Amino acid sequence: MPKPSKKVKDKWRMKSWFNVAAPTCFGELLIASIPCEDENKLIGRVVEATLYDITGDFSHQTIKLYFLITGIEGKKAKTIMKGHEYSPDYLRSLIRRGTSRVDGIFNVTTKDGFSSRISVVAFSRSRLRTSQKEAVRSIMKNVIEEKAKNLNYEQLCQEMVLGKIGSEIYNLSKKVCQLRHVGVRKSKLLLMPQKPVEKVEVEAKEPAPV
Q: How many CB atoms within 10 Å of residue 197?
Protein backbone atom coordinates (compact mmCIF):
# COMPACT_ATOMS: atom_id res chain seq x y z
CA MET A 1 0.00 0.00 0.00
CA PRO A 2 1.53 3.41 -1.05
CA LYS A 3 2.46 5.79 1.73
CA PRO A 4 0.33 8.95 1.97
CA SER A 5 2.14 11.89 0.38
CA LYS A 6 3.29 14.65 2.66
CA LYS A 7 1.79 18.08 2.19
CA VAL A 8 4.29 20.56 0.78
CA LYS A 9 4.26 23.89 2.55
CA ASP A 10 3.81 26.89 0.29
CA LYS A 11 6.62 29.13 1.52
CA TRP A 12 5.29 32.15 -0.38
CA ARG A 13 1.94 31.99 1.40
CA MET A 14 3.74 31.93 4.73
CA LYS A 15 5.45 35.23 3.93
CA SER A 16 4.13 38.72 4.60
CA TRP A 17 4.88 41.79 2.51
CA PHE A 18 6.66 44.71 4.16
CA ASN A 19 6.79 48.21 2.69
CA VAL A 20 10.27 49.75 2.83
CA ALA A 21 10.18 53.51 3.45
CA ALA A 22 12.93 56.02 2.79
CA PRO A 23 14.24 57.98 5.81
CA THR A 24 12.49 61.14 7.01
CA CYS A 25 14.97 63.35 5.13
CA PHE A 26 13.62 61.83 1.88
CA GLY A 27 9.96 62.11 2.83
CA GLU A 28 9.49 58.50 4.02
CA LEU A 29 8.44 57.57 0.47
CA LEU A 30 7.82 53.91 -0.38
CA ILE A 31 10.90 52.59 -2.21
CA ALA A 32 10.28 48.82 -2.21
CA SER A 33 8.09 45.97 -1.00
CA ILE A 34 9.80 42.86 0.37
CA PRO A 35 8.26 39.46 1.22
CA CYS A 36 9.53 37.89 4.44
CA GLU A 37 8.26 35.21 6.83
CA ASP A 38 10.13 36.63 9.84
CA GLU A 39 10.29 40.41 10.23
CA ASN A 40 13.46 40.12 12.34
CA LYS A 41 15.30 38.85 9.26
CA LEU A 42 14.68 42.19 7.54
CA ILE A 43 16.78 44.11 10.05
CA GLY A 44 20.18 44.83 8.54
CA ARG A 45 19.15 44.24 4.92
CA VAL A 46 20.08 46.84 2.31
CA VAL A 47 17.66 48.10 -0.33
CA GLU A 48 18.93 49.84 -3.46
CA ALA A 49 17.09 52.70 -5.19
CA THR A 50 17.92 55.79 -7.24
CA LEU A 51 17.39 59.43 -6.42
CA TYR A 52 14.89 59.42 -9.30
CA ASP A 53 12.69 57.08 -7.23
CA ILE A 54 12.58 59.80 -4.55
CA THR A 55 12.33 63.02 -6.58
CA GLY A 56 10.74 61.88 -9.84
CA ASP A 57 13.38 63.91 -11.68
CA PHE A 58 14.68 61.84 -14.62
CA SER A 59 18.15 63.44 -14.38
CA HIS A 60 18.54 61.89 -10.92
CA GLN A 61 18.68 58.33 -12.27
CA THR A 62 22.47 58.62 -12.18
CA ILE A 63 22.63 58.66 -8.37
CA LYS A 64 22.27 55.32 -6.56
CA LEU A 65 21.04 55.23 -2.97
CA TYR A 66 21.45 52.40 -0.46
CA PHE A 67 19.07 52.18 2.50
CA LEU A 68 19.69 50.04 5.59
CA ILE A 69 16.60 48.60 7.30
CA THR A 70 16.82 49.42 11.01
CA GLY A 71 13.37 48.64 12.39
CA ILE A 72 9.84 47.41 11.72
CA GLU A 73 6.59 49.18 12.61
CA GLY A 74 3.62 46.99 11.63
CA LYS A 75 4.18 46.28 7.94
CA LYS A 76 6.50 49.26 7.47
CA ALA A 77 10.27 48.86 7.39
CA LYS A 78 12.15 51.94 8.61
CA THR A 79 15.53 52.80 7.10
CA ILE A 80 18.53 55.06 7.24
CA MET A 81 20.80 55.87 4.30
CA LYS A 82 23.76 53.50 4.31
CA GLY A 83 25.42 55.30 1.43
CA HIS A 84 25.13 56.58 -2.10
CA GLU A 85 27.23 56.86 -5.25
CA TYR A 86 27.32 58.22 -8.77
CA SER A 87 26.70 55.54 -11.39
CA PRO A 88 29.95 54.55 -13.20
CA ASP A 89 28.59 55.77 -16.56
CA TYR A 90 27.75 59.19 -15.14
CA LEU A 91 31.17 59.56 -13.52
CA ARG A 92 32.89 58.68 -16.80
CA SER A 93 30.75 61.19 -18.68
CA LEU A 94 32.15 64.02 -16.55
CA ILE A 95 35.73 63.44 -17.74
CA ARG A 96 37.01 65.84 -20.44
CA ARG A 97 40.35 66.17 -22.21
CA GLY A 98 42.50 69.12 -21.16
CA THR A 99 40.83 69.37 -17.75
CA SER A 100 41.69 68.20 -14.23
CA ARG A 101 39.94 66.04 -11.66
CA VAL A 102 40.29 66.70 -7.94
CA ASP A 103 39.27 64.05 -5.39
CA GLY A 104 38.89 64.33 -1.65
CA ILE A 105 38.03 61.50 0.76
CA PHE A 106 37.14 62.42 4.35
CA ASN A 107 36.05 60.48 7.44
CA VAL A 108 33.73 62.56 9.62
CA THR A 109 31.33 62.14 12.53
CA THR A 110 28.05 64.06 12.66
CA LYS A 111 26.83 65.84 15.77
CA ASP A 112 24.49 62.91 16.54
CA GLY A 113 27.36 60.40 16.41
CA PHE A 114 27.15 58.81 12.94
CA SER A 115 30.53 58.18 11.30
CA SER A 116 30.78 58.32 7.51
CA ARG A 117 33.34 58.26 4.73
CA ILE A 118 32.58 60.98 2.17
CA SER A 119 34.17 61.16 -1.28
CA VAL A 120 33.99 64.49 -3.10
CA VAL A 121 34.96 65.06 -6.73
CA ALA A 122 35.53 68.24 -8.74
CA PHE A 123 36.16 68.68 -12.47
CA SER A 124 37.76 71.87 -13.78
CA ARG A 125 37.22 73.73 -17.05
CA SER A 126 40.96 73.69 -17.83
CA ARG A 127 44.06 71.97 -16.52
CA LEU A 128 44.92 72.94 -12.94
CA ARG A 129 48.25 73.50 -11.24
CA THR A 130 49.17 71.39 -8.21
CA SER A 131 48.69 74.40 -5.90
CA GLN A 132 45.16 74.92 -7.25
CA LYS A 133 44.28 71.27 -6.70
CA GLU A 134 45.53 71.49 -3.12
CA ALA A 135 43.49 74.65 -2.53
CA VAL A 136 40.29 73.03 -3.86
CA ARG A 137 40.90 69.92 -1.75
CA SER A 138 41.38 72.10 1.32
CA ILE A 139 38.04 73.82 0.63
CA MET A 140 36.39 70.40 0.31
CA LYS A 141 37.81 69.32 3.67
CA ASN A 142 36.71 72.50 5.46
CA VAL A 143 33.16 72.36 4.09
CA ILE A 144 32.67 68.64 4.86
CA GLU A 145 34.05 68.91 8.40
CA GLU A 146 32.00 72.03 9.15
CA LYS A 147 28.83 70.34 7.87
CA ALA A 148 29.43 67.21 9.94
CA LYS A 149 30.04 69.29 13.06
CA ASN A 150 26.78 71.23 12.72
CA LEU A 151 24.35 68.76 11.13
CA ASN A 152 22.78 65.49 12.20
CA TYR A 153 23.19 62.46 9.94
CA GLU A 154 19.90 62.81 8.05
CA GLN A 155 20.56 66.49 7.34
CA LEU A 156 24.04 65.65 6.08
CA CYS A 157 22.64 62.90 3.80
CA GLN A 158 20.13 65.30 2.30
CA GLU A 159 22.74 67.96 1.59
CA MET A 160 25.16 65.42 0.08
CA VAL A 161 22.65 63.78 -2.23
CA LEU A 162 20.69 66.85 -3.31
CA GLY A 163 23.83 68.80 -4.20
CA LYS A 164 23.95 71.55 -1.57
CA ILE A 165 27.43 70.59 -0.37
CA GLY A 166 28.70 70.47 -3.95
CA SER A 167 27.28 73.94 -4.62
CA GLU A 168 28.99 75.41 -1.55
CA ILE A 169 32.36 73.95 -2.53
CA TYR A 170 31.85 75.20 -6.10
CA ASN A 171 31.12 78.76 -4.96
CA LEU A 172 34.04 78.90 -2.52
CA SER A 173 36.42 77.57 -5.18
CA LYS A 174 35.66 80.38 -7.66
CA LYS A 175 38.50 82.48 -6.24
CA VAL A 176 40.95 79.64 -6.89
CA CYS A 177 39.89 78.31 -10.33
CA GLN A 178 36.95 77.72 -12.66
CA LEU A 179 35.22 74.42 -11.98
CA ARG A 180 32.71 72.63 -14.20
CA HIS A 181 31.23 70.18 -11.70
CA VAL A 182 31.50 69.53 -7.96
CA GLY A 183 29.61 66.88 -6.02
CA VAL A 184 29.71 64.21 -3.35
CA ARG A 185 30.23 61.21 -5.65
CA LYS A 186 30.07 58.60 -2.90
CA SER A 187 29.33 58.19 0.79
CA LYS A 188 29.39 55.23 3.16
CA LEU A 189 28.05 54.89 6.69
CA LEU A 190 30.79 53.43 8.89
CA LEU A 191 29.33 53.40 12.41
CA MET A 192 25.97 54.11 14.02
CA PRO A 193 25.61 55.39 17.59
CA GLN A 194 24.01 52.72 19.76
CA LYS A 195 24.05 51.49 23.34
CA PRO A 196 27.54 50.26 24.35
CA VAL A 197 26.43 46.61 24.56
CA GLU A 198 24.76 46.74 21.15
CA LYS A 199 27.33 48.86 19.33
CA VAL A 200 28.21 47.18 16.05
CA GLU A 201 30.00 48.16 12.88
CA VAL A 202 27.79 48.46 9.81
CA GLU A 203 28.50 45.41 7.64
CA ALA A 204 28.00 45.35 3.88
CA LYS A 205 25.12 43.08 2.84
CA GLU A 206 23.65 42.19 -0.51
CA PRO A 207 20.88 44.60 -1.61
CA ALA A 208 17.39 43.13 -1.26
CA PRO A 209 15.41 42.63 -4.50
CA VAL A 210 13.03 45.51 -5.29
A: 5
Q: How many CA atoms lie within 13 A of 177 on its CB side?
A: 25
For residue 125, tell me if it sits in a domain.
yes
Say if residues 173 and 140 touch (Cβ distance below 8 Å): no
pLDDT at 67 over 50: yes
Are both 169 and 150 inside the same structural domain?
yes
29: helix, coil or strand?
coil
Entry pTM: 0.84
Q: How confident is the model at residue 12 (pLDDT cuts 50, 70, 90)?
A: low
d(CA 26, CA 5): 51
Torsional class of 91: left (φ above 0), alpha (ψ -120 to 50), beta (otherwise): alpha
**Is residue 20 domain-shared with residue 79, that is, in the same domain?**
yes
SS3 content of the chain, % helix, strand, coil (to 5): 35, 35, 30
Contact yes or no for 85/184 (Cβ under 8 A): no
Mean pLDDT computed over 154-182: 97
| Helix, strand, or coil (residue 15) | coil
Contact indicator for 143, 165 with CB cutoff of 8 Å = yes
Assess whether 61 and 124 both reside in one domain: no
